[in-house]
């Protein structure tokens, strides 16, 4: 069989054809035409275009592209990727999953992570392309986790709108902060497979992945795959399709809760109280993957809703609440969700709901900066800035969509103290003034997010490149990151609904990209100049120098462009040849 020329693939046309098929699946599912959905899914999983995209995702774009499974095989060269495309097929086969333990953020215990072989990852990406648009038309409006075009900030804004007090009669709401016990590890396989509502060949393939056993070692020969015990429950964390399967298993929670509360017999003694009864029936459930909250103005109803959901979970996916981590709190007391702290406060006889970065996340940031400075005692300030800048600004860009000014100011002061100690500990032979001027030069001005700052205590570093040019870096203060207002995604909107302008606009405005990337997105109107294709929410985007720095190019906007990662790789090869 003749292999496809991987380096000569017209990715714009490939993405267009796959996107067109996915949009048709979404539209057919929205109309309830199950026959057309199955017909289009069969076309998609057999399409060369979708196989090319699936292989590109796991061998070029994914961060784990160089992490092999039990077969110790990776696909690096263009020929190897082309061979994988030619042999890729949804056939019900699978390999055991290599399992490792990784630390949980901010916790001492570790959680298991499954690493499938790259061939299985590519098949999972292929199946996900067929299933995701079908289920995007079904998923509930307040489900936000691991869905294209939706982010934690959408869930946070939904919680804010739900607990926001608009009248004086409802001064507080009660929140059930729920935690499921081992969600990924305990999902019932039979329930999940029966719920998929797709082609038999896809159901058999998903069933095979769910049954795949775990191998604790590094390498396992293929002739021993059958000796690994099968997995009876759950979906392994780490697979491409695992978060989607979790969403499918938990789909229906919100609708079930609303049906339950509507059909309760809420008594009232007077006719005018019927309006109050309707308000009693109003309940909110906001879910981000397996993390969700139930919100209601009556504590008893909130607890009853939690018990009802417990019965529903047991009867469907065989999941249960982790009672030790599930709590009921008043919005006046405050609660945490997705790293944010929510609280309703009274000010001037009115009530307001406020959102702040949680204390736990604040402590994690300070610890991470401190640990990095202790670990990299001997590197240059230029390299230390390269380590710290993504940590600090990534944290700030996540929490900027809340009332963060005071928290950022405190964090800026503490981080400065850590950096000052790092600098003065390095050089004890020279005077403190000379050390200060070396690492924190006076009289310099810095530009960040279009604003100029004059500060004599900003960590600064220089490095001479191979071409003899002197490159400079500085570490912005976290307090320079301004607070912004976030607008929640519209209702049941989906990236497959064909409203491309709306999604490109959200990508450039509300993504976690830095200012430079967002500005380039706006300048380029959401298109990659190399392939002329649009950037989507699943696209891996990189900043490219039109004239490479090694050839005298400058790091200025006129010499910068945003490109797809796969386009960037091809351009870099051509630059090296030229």
From TrEMBL:
<dbReference type="GO" id="GO:0003676">
    <property type="term" value="F:nucleic acid binding"/>
</dbReference>
<dbReference type="Pfam" id="PF00078">
    <property type="entry name" value="RVT_1"/>
</dbReference>
<keyword id="KW-0150">Chloroplast</keyword>
<dbReference type="InterPro" id="IPR043502">
    <property type="entry name" value="DNA/RNA_pol_sf"/>
</dbReference>
<protein>
    <recommendedName>
        <fullName>Reverse transcriptase domain-containing protein</fullName>
    </recommendedName>
</protein>
<dbReference type="Pfam" id="PF01844">
    <property type="entry name" value="HNH"/>
</dbReference>
<dbReference type="InterPro" id="IPR000477">
    <property type="entry name" value="RT_dom"/>
</dbReference>
<dbReference type="InterPro" id="IPR003615">
    <property type="entry name" value="HNH_nuc"/>
</dbReference>
<dbReference type="InterPro" id="IPR013597">
    <property type="entry name" value="Mat_intron_G2"/>
</dbReference>
<keyword id="KW-0934">Plastid</keyword>
<dbReference type="GO" id="GO:0008270">
    <property type="term" value="F:zinc ion binding"/>
</dbReference>
<dbReference type="InterPro" id="IPR002711">
    <property type="entry name" value="HNH"/>
</dbReference>
<dbReference type="GO" id="GO:0004519">
    <property type="term" value="F:endonuclease activity"/>
</dbReference>
<dbReference type="Pfam" id="PF08388">
    <property type="entry name" value="GIIM"/>
</dbReference>
<dbReference type="InterPro" id="IPR025960">
    <property type="entry name" value="RVT_N"/>
</dbReference>
<feature type="domain" description="Reverse transcriptase">
    <location>
        <begin position="83"/>
        <end position="342"/>
    </location>
</feature>
<dbReference type="InterPro" id="IPR051083">
    <property type="entry name" value="GrpII_Intron_Splice-Mob/Def"/>
</dbReference>
<dbReference type="Pfam" id="PF13655">
    <property type="entry name" value="RVT_N"/>
</dbReference>
């Amino acid at each position: 069989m003749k292999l496809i020329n991987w380096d000569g693939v017209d990715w714009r046309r490939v993405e267009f054809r796959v996107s067109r098929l996915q949009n048709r699946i979404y539209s057919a599912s929205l109309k309830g035409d199950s026959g057309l959905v199955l017909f289009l899914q069969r076309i998609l999983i057999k399409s060369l275009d979708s196989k090319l995209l699936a292989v590109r995702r796991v061998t070029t774009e994914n961060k784990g592209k160089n992490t092999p499974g039990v077969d110790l095989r990776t696909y690096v060269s263009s020929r190897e990727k082309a061979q994988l495309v030619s042999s890729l097929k949804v056939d019900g086969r699978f390999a055991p999953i290599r399992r490792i333990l990784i630390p949980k953020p901010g916790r001492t215990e570790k959680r298991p992570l499954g690493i499938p072989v790259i061939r299985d990852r590519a098949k999972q990406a292929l199946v996900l392309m067929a299933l995701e648009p079908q289920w995007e038309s079904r998923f509930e409006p307040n489900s936000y986790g691991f869905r294209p075009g939706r982010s934690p900030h959408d869930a946070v804004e939904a919680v804010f709108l739900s607990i926001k007090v608009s009248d004086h009669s409802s001064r507080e709401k009660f929140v059930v902060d729920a935690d499921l016990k081992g969600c990924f590890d305990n999902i019932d396989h039979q329930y999940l497979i029966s719920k998929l509502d797709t082609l038999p060949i896809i159901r058999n393939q998903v069933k095979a992945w769910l049954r795949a056993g775990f191998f604790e070692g590094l390498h396992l020969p293929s002739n021993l795959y059958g000796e690994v015990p099968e997995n009876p429950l759950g979906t392994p964390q780490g697979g491409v399709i695992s978060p989607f399967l979790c969403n499918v298993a938990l789909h229906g929670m919100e609708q079930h809760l609303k049906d339950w509360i509507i059909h309760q017999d809420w008594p009232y003694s007077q006719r005018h109280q019927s309006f109050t009864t309707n308000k009693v029936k109003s309940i909110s459930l906001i879910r981000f993957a397996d993390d969700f909250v139930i919100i209601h103005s009556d504590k008893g109803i909130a607890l009853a809703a939690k018990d009802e959901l417990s019965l529903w979970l047991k009867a469907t996916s065989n999941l249960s609440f982790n009672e030790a981590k599930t709590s009921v709190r008043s919005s006046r007391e405050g609660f945490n969700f997705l790293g944010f702290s929510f609280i309703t406060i009274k000010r001037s006889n009115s009530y307001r709901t406020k959102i702040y970065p949680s204390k736990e996340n604040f402590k994690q940031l300070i610890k991470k900066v401190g640990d990095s400075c202790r670990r990299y005692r001997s590197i240059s300030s230029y390299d230390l800035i390269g380590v710290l800048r993504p940590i600090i600004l990534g944290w700030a860009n996540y929490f900027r969509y809340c009332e963060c000014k005071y928290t950022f100011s405190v964090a800026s002061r503490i981080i400065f103290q850590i950096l000052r100690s790092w600098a003065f500990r390095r050089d004890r032979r020279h005077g403190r003034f000379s050390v200060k001027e070396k690492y924190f030069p006076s009289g310099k001005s810095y530009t960040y997010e279009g604003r100029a700052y004059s500060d004599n205590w900003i960590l600064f570093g220089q490095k001479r490149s191979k071409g003899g040019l002197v490159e400079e870096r500085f570490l912005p203060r976290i307090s320079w990151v301004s607070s912004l207002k976030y607008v929640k995604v519209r209702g049941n909107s989906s990236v497959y609904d064909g409203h491309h302008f709306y999604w490109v606009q959200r990508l450039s405005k509300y993504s976690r990209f830095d200012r430079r990337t967002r500005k380039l997105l706006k300048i380029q109107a959401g298109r990659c100049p190399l392939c002329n294709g649009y950037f989507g929410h699943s696209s891996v985007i990189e900043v490219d120098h039109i004239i490479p720095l090694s050839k005298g190019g400058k790091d200025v906007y006129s010499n910068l462009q945003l490109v797809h990662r796969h386009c960037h790789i091809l351009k870099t090869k051509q630059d090296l040849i030229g």
